[in-house]
């Protein structure tokens, strides 16, 4: 059966549905049970047990296991068992980390899942696309990604881009009538829409004919399934770094083993020590911890209403130098109220606020009834006719709820204040055609037919644009040819309203003669008669001003990009502190004339782009990027997608954004609010800093471990650490404390630093030096403590080894607090990060356990330490952190207060 050949009735019959009511709840549930969710089957997942075993496939771990088995064969059972247990625990930890990372990523994917507008049980609702079943009535409109296969029952100027299926990138016009033909290719099935394709224009309603694997997309799903896991630039760099670190660790290990054997140590013992050292020194946990830090940070962002769609953008966020933000709804509240009306030189003030019907029209300090003023009535009622919003009277609420665009909502409310509703108007006239609003034309029109058969066009839109389409104007209640003096007056009114930060909407009309056909918007929107203006306030979001100031402090410039009038935009930009005194405002028309190079040279001083079309946004992004900026760009419509895609951080609106914009974006604001961008940038900076913190911690610790052994060989000392101790240190200190650093709180200066350079290396800003210096000192104090202990009791090697072991652990656990700050350990309250405190306490507890529980002493080759020993351990282990921190504080004091927080030490 071909769905495209069937009549509408036949489609309803086959799917057991009804185009006017949709499925009933019961029918839906039955279908869902039968067909399952509307999802493409995912590619094969790695089973958990394979993930577990993959923890042990690391070359060095295998070598360690082999060496351990060998030692068991040579009779060292206890050592061998302990080592194997530690390796297994390590593997389990790695496995848990990996599962957690995977789960967090899956949760993120779920969050950005698309929704669909469907009719069920007679009411329209928005549901998750996976809940759609065959028979559901679904509405698609411009910007939607089609969520299932469907057959149209009605379409309005509908175009769908089907390149995902057909390879044809030109959108196809859709219709609803049945088509005859055998085995038509998908591209010719013009009354069907297919899962995964994109609606570029218009809207349509249809019945779902296939879901999940039963869609056309499902048939080719295996071709497009690619397990795409994007690695962030830092992850890629760390991957390369990991390889280098393996080589360095192996080289040093070979050196240690070589030196040990040369010094006369037992070669077999040296090899086991060497292999343990290599296992400990290679930071195999790093990638998992990075993923966890990213994923946890991303979840924190979600709590602050920013949904990250592409993980790499978390890093880029911290590098952002410019935010290009839409005005309406992002910087402002998008809660519009008409406060002024203007027509033919007359101004009315409108009282009342919000979506309440109460309000009066005041002219020259006197109340005016709209029904007594023909022009006023026409201005109000035409704005209601040319309008797709709906005011819903919800029980228990003292004001209406708006369904639709707030600009249109404001016009409905101003009409309502004069008792005008769309229902009452539709008793007199019918709307027979519509040319929907688009932000390039900046207007919308309807064609209206009166009961007596007269037809006329009603247009509303951006006043300056609409004025150019008008040949006539209503002046002194007369329709007159528009003259310069009229145009001047209208422009004056637009400026006056704009200066008060009001968004203005113009209303115009055109009578249609006889059978004149209007086949496109261009024909309808010409030779119009200008009626007047409605000016509405759209207050700035209260929190935005502060967010903009925070961004300025953080070295990030905010640019307003809006379709609104330059004067209105500038007034709001001034209120929000976006536009400085000498800052420039550029209009879309001027922007079109500028060459790219001109824009590049001017861009630095432009703060507001007004009356722009979505296409301009791309030009702006390119110019800013050419100037070396890392650009965040917001958008919501289909046409915004190219700019969102090319920006370093593409940001889509969660509420008002289309699927197309969301899919092109790397960040979605679930509340459409500018302040959320600021919060996301702060989190982005913090996540990166946290990753730096544990890289610093892990690598300094590992450096310390290797150097202890190397120093011992160089000084012809006995082995300061035994293999099992090295592995224990690796397990305990690399695990929990490192993870706790990954969720550390931001430093207080995180939003007063300049943005990070996007090409910055892992070890920049002094990190490499910090790792080497701290690592060196950790190694030095450990060998120092060992040496002192041996000096005092030359025949107590086990005691000296226990002291070395404890000093190494304690030095690392103190150093972990130092890693929390780019400046010094003294700059932060150590109890702020409770996870870290708990992680450190549990590590200390584990140290005491292996030292004081008698059965574990022979396993870990430890003896209980005395108070004197402990004083030595603690005194020595505090040195690496506090000596350098003290030095840093001394240096800071000497410098003026504006000193860079990134000074090297
Ligand atoms: P932003 O500041 O986010 O760019 P905007 O609403 O000003 O938002 P657009 O949506 O592109 O930008 O609108 C451009 C202009 O078109 C508006 O300034 C307004 O004059 C006009 N306009 C907006 N909505 C409608 C509508 N529903 N019908 C007619 N004209 C509209």
Automatic annotation (TrEMBL):
InterPro entries: ATPase_P-typ_cation-transptr_C, ATPase_P-typ_cation-transptr_N, ATPase_P-typ_cyto_dom_N, ATPase_P-typ_P_site, ATPase_P-typ_TM_dom_sf, ATPase_P-typ_transduc_dom_A_sf, ATPase_P-type_domA, Cation_transp_ATPase_P-type
Pfam families: Cation_ATPase, Cation_ATPase_C, Cation_ATPase_N, E1-E2_ATPase
Topological type in the membrane: Multi-pass membrane protein
Domain Cation-transporting P-type ATPase N-terminal, chain residue ranges per copy: 2-76
Keyword terms of this UniProt record: ATP-binding, Cell membrane, Ion transport, Magnesium, Membrane, Nucleotide-binding, Phosphoprotein, Translocase, Transmembrane, Transmembrane helix, Transport
PANTHER family the record matches: CATION TRANSPORTING ATPASE, SODIUM/POTASSIUM-TRANSPORTING ATPASE SUBUNIT ALPHA
Record protein name field: Calcium-translocating P-type ATPase, SERCA-type
The organism of origin for this protein: Scopulibacillus cellulosilyticus
Lineage of the organism: Bacteria, Bacillati, Bacillota, Bacilli, Bacillales
């Amino acid at each position: 059966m071909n769905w495209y050949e069937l009549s509408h009735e036949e489609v309803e019959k086959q799917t057991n549905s009804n185009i006017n009511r949709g499925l009933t709840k019961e029918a839906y549930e039955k279908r869902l049970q039968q067909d399952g969710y509307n999802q493409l089957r995912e590619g094969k997942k790695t089973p958990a047990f394979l993930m577990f075993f993959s923890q042990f496939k690391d070359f060095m771990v295998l070598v360690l296991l082999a060496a351990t088995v060998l030692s068991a064969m040579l009779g060292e059972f206890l050592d061998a068992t302990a080592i194997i247990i530690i390796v297994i625990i390590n593997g389990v930890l790695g496995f848990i980390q990996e599962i957690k990372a995977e789960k967090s990523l899956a949760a993120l994917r779920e969050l950005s899942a698309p929704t669909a507008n469907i009719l069920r049980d007679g009411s329209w609702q928005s549901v998750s696309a996976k809940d759609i079943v065959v028979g559901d009535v679904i509405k698609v409109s411009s910007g939607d990604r089609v969520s299932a296969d469907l057959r149209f029952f009605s379409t309005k100027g509908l175009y769908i881009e089907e390149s995902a299926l057909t390879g044809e990138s030109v959108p196809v016009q859709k219709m609803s009538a049945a088509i005859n033909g055998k085995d038509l290719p998908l591209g010719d099935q013009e009354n069907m829409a297919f899962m995964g394709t994109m609606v570029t224009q218009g809207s349509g309603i249809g019945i779902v004919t296939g879901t999940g694997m039963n869609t056309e997309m499902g048939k080719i799903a295996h071709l497009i399934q690619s397990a795409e896991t994007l690695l962030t630039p830092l992850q890629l760099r760390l991957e390369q770094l990991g390889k280098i670190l393996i080589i360095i660790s192996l080289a040093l290990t070979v050196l240690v083993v070589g030196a040990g054997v040369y010094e006369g140590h037992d070669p077999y013992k040296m090899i086991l020590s060497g292999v343990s050292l290599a296992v400990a020194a290679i930071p195999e946990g790093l990638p998992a911890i990075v993923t966890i830090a990213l994923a946890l940070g991303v979840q924190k962002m979600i709590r602050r209403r920013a949904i990250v769609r592409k993980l790499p953008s978390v890093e880029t966020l911290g590098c952002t130098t410019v935010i290009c933000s839409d005005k309406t709804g992002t910087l402002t509240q998008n809660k519009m109220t008409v406060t002024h009306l203007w027509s033919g030189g007359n101004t009315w003030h409108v009282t009342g606020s919000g979506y309440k019907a109460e309000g009066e029209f005041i002219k020259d300090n006197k109340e005016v009834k709209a029904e007594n003023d023909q022009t006023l009535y026409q201005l109000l009622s035409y704005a209601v006719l040319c309008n797709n919003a709906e005011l819903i009277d919800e029980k228990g609420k003292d004001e209406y709820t708006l369904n639709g665009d707030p600009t249109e909502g404001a016009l409905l409310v101003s009409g309502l204040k004069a008792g005008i509703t769309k229902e009452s108007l539709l008793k007199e006239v019918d709307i027979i055609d519509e040319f929907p609003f688009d932000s390039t034309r900046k207007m919308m029109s309807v064609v209206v037919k009166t009961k007596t058969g007269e037809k006329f066009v009603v247009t509303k839109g951006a006043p300056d644009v609409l004025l150019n389409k008008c040949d006539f104007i209503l002046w002194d209640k007369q329709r007159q040819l528009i003259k310069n003096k009229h145009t001047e007056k209208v422009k004056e009114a637009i400026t006056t309203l704009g200066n008060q930060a009001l968004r203005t909407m113009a209303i115009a009309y055109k009578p249609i003669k006889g059978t004149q056909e209007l086949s496109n918007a261009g024909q309808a929107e010409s030779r119009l008669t200008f009626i007047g203006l409605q000016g509405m306030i759209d207050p700035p979001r209260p929190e935005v001003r502060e967010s903009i100031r925070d961004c300025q402090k953080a070295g990030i410039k905010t640019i307003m990009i809006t379709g609104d009038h330059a004067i209105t935009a500038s007034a709001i930009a001034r209120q929000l502190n976006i536009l400085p005194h000498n800052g420039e405002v550029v209009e879309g028309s001027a922007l079109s004339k500028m060459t790219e190079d001109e824009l590049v040279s001017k861009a630095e001083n432009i703060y507001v782009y007004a009356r722009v079309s979505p296409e301009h946004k791309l030009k702006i992004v390119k110019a800013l990027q050419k100037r070396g900026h890392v650009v965040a760009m917001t958008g919501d419509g289909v046409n915004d997608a190219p700019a969102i895609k090319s920006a370093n951080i593409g940001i889509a609106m969660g509420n008002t954004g289309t699927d197309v914009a969301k899919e092109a974006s790397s960040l979605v604001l679930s509340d459409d609010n500018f302040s959320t961008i600021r919060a996301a940038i702060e989190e982005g900076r913090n996540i990166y800093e946290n990753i730096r913190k544990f890289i610093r911690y892990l690598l300094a610790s590992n450096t310390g471990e290797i150097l202890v052994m190397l120093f011992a060989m160089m000084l012809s000392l006995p082995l300061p650490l035994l293999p099992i101790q090295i592995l224990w240190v690796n397990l305990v200190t690399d695990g929990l404390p490192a993870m706790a650093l990954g969720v550390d709180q931001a430093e207080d200066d995180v939003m007063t630093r300049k943005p990070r350079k996007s090409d910055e290396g892992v070890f920049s800003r002094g990190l490499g030096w910090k790792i080497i210096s701290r690592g060196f000192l950790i190694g030095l104090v450990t060998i120092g403590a060992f040496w002192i202990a041996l000096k005092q009791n030359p025949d107590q090697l086990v005691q000296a080894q226990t002291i070395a072991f404890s000093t190494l652990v304690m030095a690392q656990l103190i150093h972990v607090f130092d890693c929390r700050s780019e400046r010094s350990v003294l700059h932060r309250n150590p109890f702020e990060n409770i996870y870290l405190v708990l992680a450190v306490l549990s590590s200390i507890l584990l140290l005491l356990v292996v030292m004081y529980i008698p059965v574990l002493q022979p396993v870990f080759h430890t003896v209980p330490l005395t108070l004197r020993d402990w004083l030595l351990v603690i005194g020595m282990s505090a040195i690496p952190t506090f000596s350098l921190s003290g030095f840093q504080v001394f240096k800071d004091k000497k410098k003026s207060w504006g000193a860079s927080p990134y000074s090297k030490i």
